[in-house]
Amino acid sequence: MSLGRTYGVGLVGLHGRIVEVEADIGQALPSFVLLGLPDASLNEARDRVKSAAKNAGLPLSRRRITVNLMPADVPKHGSGFDLAIAVAALCAGGTLRSPGRCVFLAELGLDSRLRPIRGVLPAVMAAVAAGFTDIAVAAENAGEAALVPAARVRGYTCLAEVAADLGADPEQLVFPPPASRAADDSPAGEETDQPARLPDLADVAGQQEARFAVEVAAAGAHHLLMTGPPGAGKTMLAERLPGILPDLPDDQAMEVTAIHSLAWQGRPCRQLLRRPPFESPHHTASPAAVIGGGSGIPRPGAASRAHRGVLFLDEAPEYERRVLDGLRQPLESGQLVLHRAAGTAVYPARFQLVLAANPCPCGLAAGKGIDCTCTPQQRRRYFSRLSGPLLDRVDLQLTVQRVSLGDYFGSDAAEGSGAVAARVRQARSLQRERLLPLGCETNAEVTGSLLRDVLRPPSAATTALDRAMERQLLTARGYDRVLRVAWTIADLAGHPVPGADDVGQALAFRRQGAAAA
Hints:
Elements: E1 3-12, E2 15-26, E3 31-35, H1 40-43, H2 45-55, E4 64-70, H3 82-92, E5 102-105, E6 107-108, E7 114-115, H4 120-129, E8 134-138, H5 139-145, E9 152-156, H6 159-165, H7 208-220, E10 224-227, H8 234-240, H9 250-263, E11 278-279, H10 287-290, E12 292-293, E13 299-300, H11 302-305, E14 310-313, H12 321-325, H13 328-333, E15 335-340, E16 343-348, E17 352-357, H14 376-383, H15 388-391, E18 396-399, H16 405-408, H17 417-435, H18 448-451, H19 463-470, H20 476-493, H21 500-516
Parallel strand pairs: 3-4, 5-8, 8-9, 10-17, 10-18, 11-14, 14-17
Antiparallel strand pairs: 1-2, 2-4, 6-7, 12-13, 15-16
Helix pairs in contact: 2-3, 7-17, 7-20, 20-21
């Protein structure tokens, strides 16, 4: 029986499934049939495979070739099945021996070169989890695939190299000439990326309250809203938040790298992404660009790319209402569930949301607002684009005032990110020690039931907070979020439990947002 079998991986979101690729040579007129619910790009693999095999010196059989991707009822997409299809077809024709339980992940060029594909890291993770540890990929993807423990990765530059390892006649093989390489490209596996210099908090003049709010946000992984006139430093502060966040541990770094592998930022990942990501989409971005989506299998958006990092929305009221309200689900659950006809994709999205907004369309309503030309109705309409349910999920809400002349030309140098980051690491260490037995990592993740039970501060410390809720100035969610911020302020100060001053400061941050709205 002329049957060849190889394996690939079908991805839906970050979850992969082993796909068995069968190829059969039949006694019929020459044709190439591809079965198993392939999408348009996968259907085109027929022509890519035929041309690549011919140019590698291994032309496919001139009889009917039937390739089936199993399970047949699961939609398949992308060009990552090219190599698996080619090897299965060549095995069916007797040109190559069976590769066994090896998974093939690469796109084929017409000249038989192997091209890198998106999502290699989550695909290899899925293969290893399913017991398939032998992986064949394009040379450019080899470094990324090797990040998965227990994976035995082989990187190839062309189909002829793969065929040589599978017993093809060396005299038949045709190797393409070396590809020309741009001057700024590096060979596969060679690491040339230098860590970018992160913006430093020392660049921010004055703004002591806002700097402290950013520090609290970093220490407890809290969401932050900054309202103030243009030029007050809101964007500068937001851009410096990632620089004071601690490096990601191995499990979180693997998650983040897998998302960025799938999002495909122009070249394969060669090492784990240890620094928290920072995403700042333009206010004209569509819901699919921010939340995720697109035709076919939905792809990750900026919210998922910011997983374990910061999602910064500058000029927040200018975003579409659908974009802003679409963030409410991940702010609570830490993940995005995107439903499409082709499948449902689940992406992690546990990010810190940072919003920056002007007080009105002209931006001059801060302070006395004597220069503002906006009507009261325009002001209300502008800020009301940030819905109440969204703002209720933002822990820290403060008003950023203009920098005074004395602060701008002050003689004392502002504290840099290094010193602030050290305090943030110490606060995170205290949180892990306290919260890991409770199933949490940061104060922002603490549930309301824990805050009302084992983590409830003394009643004397929450007097002002209780009074605010009795007067219906706070929702139950807002009450919990004030307590979370209070715990973070206490951690930064080294207090074992929040005191009245810690709770009062956390409540003051909350009331500033209410006053601005």
